[in-house]
Amino acid sequence: VVTAPYSPTRAGTYALEIEVNGVMLDMTSPTRSAYTPIVVSAGTASAVASSVFGPGLTSALAGQVANFKVSPKDQYSNIRTAGNIASNGQLAIAMTQGGVNFAVTLSNANAANDRVATIKAIALVGSTSSTFPVTYRTVHTGDITGYVRIGGTALTSANPFVATIIASPVNAAGSGLTGDALAGTVANVPTSFTIQARDVFGNDLSSGGTPFLASFVNLPAGNAASVISSPVDNQDGTYTVTFTVKPDTFVGSVNIQVTLNGQLVELVTINVVGGNRNMDPARATAHGEGLLGGQAGVVQTFTIVAKDLNGIQLTSADNLPTAAAFTVVISGPESTTGVVAVDPSNRAQFNVAYQVDSTGSGYTITIQARALVGSTYTGALTVISGGVVTGVTIRPGPTAPAQSFASFLTPGGANNVVAGSTLEIVVTARDQFDNRQLYGALYLDDVFRVSGETSGSTALTATISQTDLQRVNGQYGAFLVPTVAGSYVYAVYLALAIVPFDNTANTNADGQALGTVVPGPLDVNHTLLTGQGRLGGQVKEVLNFRVYPQDQYDNVIDLAPSACQVTLTVVSGAGVFVGPVSDFAAAESGTICETDPSCSGSLGCHLKV
């Protein structure tokens, strides 16, 4: 009986052919066990070999059904056409947007509700593919972060995937008007407000091209000289409308409407007041991105708007304050004051600039304005409307490789690491001000690369990025498993720049870590025996051969000669013992094994019979 094991790696139908002494056996007879073709099916689905593809992995429209497909394959890239990995829980989808998780269900119907994803419960099987369609829907703009996992392991091409959801086509009812001018103005002073284009779900559009129209409605004959501009496209989803109410003696109100393709966007009544007004410090307001925070080391800005006691913005026809009428204090992890300057394009507005270099979410901005004394604003300070802004967040700047650092968490660092052991490396990402990176919607990811090289060739590498689960408090985790013994140089890169190691490692001048990997325990199954002497020779001839003690990764182990024992056992050609070695006066001078200086790690053995 001859047993011939074989391990096919490619799925399909096989025919069995057997030759005996060069003669092909007839395997077509039904009496032969191999008459039935051998069918090799795909193995268990593998996350490494499986793939995911489709437009929904990168982008979609708010409110529209997006889709992608998962193609499960086994470790040898054979397409699985049988076995439902969706219904048995092997295939899993996870998606989140704005901190809200999607509900994921098995369904043959497309996703219909907001923030819902569906996996078709039955694979679509074709002649060359087998896929599980996935659909999802959200009415919100912003990035979706998602994972596709098989057997609990994320697919490389979706670890994670980030799909950008953009607004649907513009909708008149969803769009609206903003701006201080809507509260009122002064006659004969050009005043502006903003149209914000939005979709039916209220999402802001971020591109131009919408044909809005603005006009006065039921304008009295006495105001016939009033003018209103066509909306100016700012190419960011906003449109600026400028109007001037005449004559300059008019006090009252006018109506303005904005339409889109004949549909009403909004109809507003704007009060027109007399000039020579004063600022009411408590009614002044502030707006701008700088009130939310920004990036460390970068100047942040916002705007203060001077208003009267009715909350109507002042104009050039009024008693305007100077920049000295305002104070801005930023307090928190770092304290500073804002620099206030009049806006040259609108003297009733004041631009504020500030900069801090320390990160944190505990900043507070306090804005105050001075009361009128006589004809100047030099009185007591009053907090303006909404003038105490808390929870201002300053996030880190771009990661600076020189300020970042890598550490070994493995006890002993990189020295005398046993082959096959796991080396754990943590990279701490910091900006130029030594602020640790913060993760979330405001932080752009970094992709670090870790390598270990020995004998001039890359032995192992790992790429670590925001997708790693070890990422906590500005840190990334990487695990390397060196299996080749020798001296190593470990390096961490961000793009092409080196991230230095800290004092957990011995380093070179470039900040790269130096270490050694030593062989693991002796594995006799990997030990090599070489040389002609191992095949035999003549009586009383000195037979020479060489022994290479090795571990399971074929690293040669440096052993003392006494560790090598050679036993000669005589057998007949039929494999039957014909007598103990002593019957043959086996070794005239014994078996000698000694360290071979010409071949490091090997033992040279000599035997005479």
How is this structure best described in words?
By secondary structure, this protein is mostly beta strands. The chain is 0% helix and 44% strand. The chain contains no helices and 50 strands. The strands form 12 sheets. Strands 36, 38, 39, 41, 42, 43 and 44 form a 7-stranded mixed beta sheet that branches. Strands 5, 7, 10, 11, 12 and 13 form a 6-stranded mixed beta sheet that branches. Strands 6, 8, 9, 14, 15 and 16 form a 6-stranded mixed beta sheet that branches. It is elongated. Mean pLDDT is 86; it is low at 466-470 and 576-589.
Q: How do the helices and strands line up, and which of them pair or pack?
A:
Layout: E1 12-14, E2 19-20, E3 23-24, E4 38-40, E5 46-53, E6 59-61, E7 66-73, E8 91-97, E9 100-101, E10 103-106, E11 116-119, E12 124-125, E13 130-137, E14 142-150, E15 153-154, E16 161-166, E17 176-178, E18 185-186, E19 191-196, E20 212-217, E21 227-228, E22 232-233, E23 238-244, E24 252-260, E25 263-273, E26 285-287, E27 293-295, E28 300-305, E29 326-331, E30 336-337, E31 339-343, E32 346-354, E33 360-373, E34 376-395, E35 405-408, E36 417-418, E37 423-428, E38 448-454, E39 457-464, E40 475-480, E41 486-494, E42 497-499, E43 506-507, E44 513-518, E45 528-530, E46 542-548, E47 570-571, E48 577-579, E49 592-595, E50 603-608
Parallel strand pairs: 6-16, 10-11, 18-25, 27-34, 36-44
Antiparallel strand pairs: 1-4, 2-3, 5-7, 7-13, 8-9, 8-14, 11-13, 12-13, 14-15, 14-16, 17-19, 19-23, 20-24, 21-23, 22-23, 24-25, 26-28, 28-32, 29-30, 29-33, 31-32, 33-34, 35-37, 37-40, 38-39, 38-41, 41-42, 41-44, 43-44, 45-46, 46-50, 47-48, 49-50
